[in-house]
Amino acid sequence: MKELLVLSGKGGTGKTSITASFAVLNQDAMLVDCDVDASDLHLLLSPETREKNDFISGVTARVRPDDCTACGTCVDICHYDAISTSEDGIAHVEPFTCEGCAVCAHFCPENAIDLEPDHCGYWYVSDTDYGPMVHARLIPGEENSGKLVALVKKEARERAEKLSKDIILVDGPPGIGCPVIASVSGADMILVVTEPTQSGLHDLERVLGLCRHFKIPACVCINKWELNKRLSEEVEKACERLQVPVVGKIPFDETVVESLVQGIPVVKYKDCSASKSIANIWSAIQKMLNQEEQK
Amino acid sequence: MKIAVASGKGGTGKTTVSVSLALSSSKPVTFVDCDVEEPNAHIFFQPEMSGSETFYLTVPRVVEDRCTYCGKCRDICQFNAITVFGKTIMAFQDMCHSCGGCFLVCEEHALEEARREIGRIEWGYSRDIKVFQASLRVGEAMSSPLIKAVKKKAGNDQLVIYDAPPGTSCPVINTVRDADYVILVTEPTPFGLHDLKLAAEVMKELGLSFGVIINKAGIGFDKVNAWCSENQVTLLAEIPFRKDVAEAYARGIPVIDVISGLKDRFGKLLKELEK
């Protein structure tokens, strides 16, 4: 079983459209959406949810005002400036700033601080026309997105093994921080979707740095490549320098915009030029994954 | 006045909007690129950097010959950054959130302060705009402390603009929370609308006033406009979807240099927001 992760560094380059298209082309993959902040894969794959689970992780401190003696210990000890006091000196924890380190509760001389478990979100197991899908939703503003990503990946992997799936397709989050690092863990290959813009090029180099840091083979595809041919060439040169193969280039195609507006994976529009490119990229990746296996 | 430019979905045009706002201001402006994972505003500003510093978090290092393996440091750590079993103790500095708890509970002074590099902060000028940015060290997971640090470094000004990272979780919260106003940038697609709703939810939770700018307007999905009017959310502006805009963006040219009248529009918007 192989796991392909789709990343981009920069947001909005086409990760989800491409992952959804691979799902359609494969027909029988285990599908995972690791963008738990702003998950969108379900908008293209219309899953039917079979299981909904709570995600509870970490704690938030809460002062019981009646027991607080306004000594100020917690205010001084909190490294996150999450505790303030009212006029009478009674402490109050700002939940959005609290990291749940529990240090205030430990050192409160009156034991007036409770640690309450955080309900950070939900995770789902669903059916799509193209295979089962594990996805999640972080409650907006909550923490622990990395842990939710790790959980989603673990659940997907266990289910994929039971179902003897050959491939797990993972739609990743943007950036290179916590949720991305959690997504990278366990991946066999990373496809980085980039675009021929200065921002795209800058972010591509950083995300490829991340792949190298975690020693996971990467490949690149350039979306909307003829938007700026000179920058596309620069992307290709950067990839050559970093010894990362470019597996394909997708043309700027009005059909892609149309498919997004309609909420349909673009490869469903069989004759458009973007679909053909995506299908070629998918074949190239399958080949590379097989070669990795033979190594 | 502090304005944060955010969005749930990535790639909708946060940097396009925030850079344009800064360039349209008639007042002194400080620009802070808070997308420390993928900072991009410098591409449009081409600032001349005048200073930089590395940002570290304080993390524990074990002094083995003082340790009695009592396990108190392990027990207080909520982030599993310290393990103690038998006569072995290990501190995983990468997992540490720098809460300081372990130092406080250790009676033997068996933990000393070490530091972990989180990233670099840089600052300089682009014409008369003060530009601050930070970039997360590749392989580092925690971006929030760096966001707080670059904002602190930037300080206050008559107008401060924060360019936020995408998403709806801690890095976004840490960017927007002290803002006087938040501009949510979206695109007219089902993705854009879905993620706009999530971002709007965060702003409501935080009690922040916000309005919406639709980028790539006119591609055939009008439900974002409808959602704004149904929910009494102010639609501040629309930036049309044009290939020349996309091409200019690719080369690092701000949209206000391409669409005539947009600079005035943004200048007016800033004045309205100040009221």
Notes on the protein architecture:
- In chain A, 38% of the residues lie in helices and 26% in strands.
- Chain A has two domains: 2-56 and 123-294, P-loop containing nucleotide triphosphate hydrolases (Rossmann fold, 3-Layer(aba) Sandwich), CATH 3.40.50.300; 65-111, 2-Layer Sandwich (Alpha-Beta Plaits).
- Chain A is built from ten helices and eleven strands.
- With 295 residues, chain A is α/β, with parallel strands linked by helices.
- In chain A, the strands form two sheets. A nine-stranded mixed beta sheet of chain A has the order 3-6-7-2-8-1-9-10-11, with helices on both faces. In chain A, strands 4-5 form a two-stranded antiparallel ribbon.
- Chain A is elongated.
- Chain A starts with a strand and ends with a helix.
- The model of chain A has no long low-confidence stretch (mean pLDDT 96).
- Chain B has two domains: 2-55 and 122-274, P-loop containing nucleotide triphosphate hydrolases (Rossmann fold); 57-117, Alpha-Beta Plaits.
- Chain B has helices spanning 14-24, 41-45, 72-76, 101-105, 144-154, 170-176, 190-206, 223-230, 243-251, 262-274, and strands spanning 2-6, 29-33, 48-62, 82-85, 88-91, 111-126, 129-136, 159-163, 181-186, 210-217, 234-240.
- In chain B, helix 7 links the parallel strand 9 and strand 10 (210-217).
- In chain B, the strands form two sheets. In chain B, strands 3-6-7-2-8-1-9-10-11 form a nine-stranded mixed beta sheet, with helices on both faces. In chain B, strands 4-5 form a two-stranded antiparallel ribbon.
- By secondary structure, chain B is α/β, with parallel strands linked by helices.
- At the A-B interface, helix 4, helix 6, helix 7 and helix 9 of A face helix 4, helix 6, helix 7 and helix 9 of B.
Number of E strands of chain B: 11
> In the CATH classification, which architecture of the largest domain in chain B applies?
3-Layer(aba) Sandwich
Report, as a whole number of angstroms, the end-to-end distance of chain A.
14 Å
Mean pLDDT of chain B: 96
Q: What is the count of DSSP helices of chain A, taking H or I runs of 4+ residues?
A: 10
Q: Beta-strand level of the residues of chain B, as a percent range?
A: 25-35%
- Oligomeric state of shown chains: heterodimer
Please bin the fraction of helical residues of chain B: 25-40%
Q: Give the largest interface pair and sizes.
A: A-B, 63 and 61 residues
